[in-house]
């Protein structure tokens, strides 16, 4: 005999089957919850055709300046360059001469990759105690330019050669006679006017003031750099004058040994003449500077 429990189970199964069959025939309106709600389909309308002009591409045109062209070297110096490719220019001082009018300082200028080679080598690169006149190597002299302040070195030879006669600038009359210095590069002729002459040591214990390393004053990247150089040379200057200088000027510094004390140097600084400038107006303006600073080693 069928039990009550079995009857109930059988009745439930029949009812469930009927419900499933009824749902499948009618279509289920409930969607799975994981699906997003259905949105209305977009309305599309037909737009009239539009004819667009052909697309054109215009590239931005930028005109870059052409690279600078190095000027042609001066013909009169070609033979020196052919003899020695370290040749970069010529230094001469027309106001310091022998009795026959020949210039004492009238030399080729060399420049290489250090400041030691031409101390004891001549123009032909042969060993020589006289060495040669050479430019500081840090900033190359080229047809495109050079340092704001070019330093030239030369020995003070006892026979009066090379830079020995720079020591004459300790005398006021020499400055008045020789205030113009010619310094040509291979590419340009130029004149410079003397603005300062001074004595200085190269060691810190030779002076009470901080060591002035004039030979490191090459390019004046800032006005502060220029002021440091100019203020120091004027502080030590043997002379005052009417020659004015300003930031942006170019300078030539000549350096040689002096003999007031060990490792002393005598230095002459000149400014490149401005275009159209008449140097003769300064000739009578040079006077001794009674307040110049002297290295303190001289007073010990």
Structural notes for this entry:
The structure is a single chain. The protein has 300 residues and is an alpha+beta fold. The chain has a domain at 144-299: Sortase (Sortase, Chain: A, Beta Barrel). It has helices at residues 4-26, 78-83, 172-177, 223-236; strands at 87-92, 106-110, 133-135, 149-153, 180-185, 191-201, 239-240, 251-257, 264-272, 287-288. Strand 8 and strand 9 form a beta hairpin. The radius of gyration is 44 Å and the shape is globular. The termini are far apart.
Global shape: globular
Number of strand elements: 10
Straight-line N-to-C gap: 142 Å
CATH topology of the domain at 144-299: Sortase, Chain: A
Tell me the structural class: alpha+beta
Q: What is the typical, i.e. mean, pLDDT? A: 86
Strand order of the largest sheet: 1-2-3-4-8-9-6-5
Could you give me the name of the CATH homologous superfamily of the domain at 144-299? Sortase
Kindly report the oligomeric state of this protein: single chain
**Uncertain spans:** 1-38
Count of DSSP helices? 4
- Helical percent range? 10-25%
Reading off the top of the CATH hierarchy, the class of the domain at 144-299 is best stated as Mainly Beta
Please provide a brief summary of the model:
This protein has 300 residues and is of the alpha+beta class.
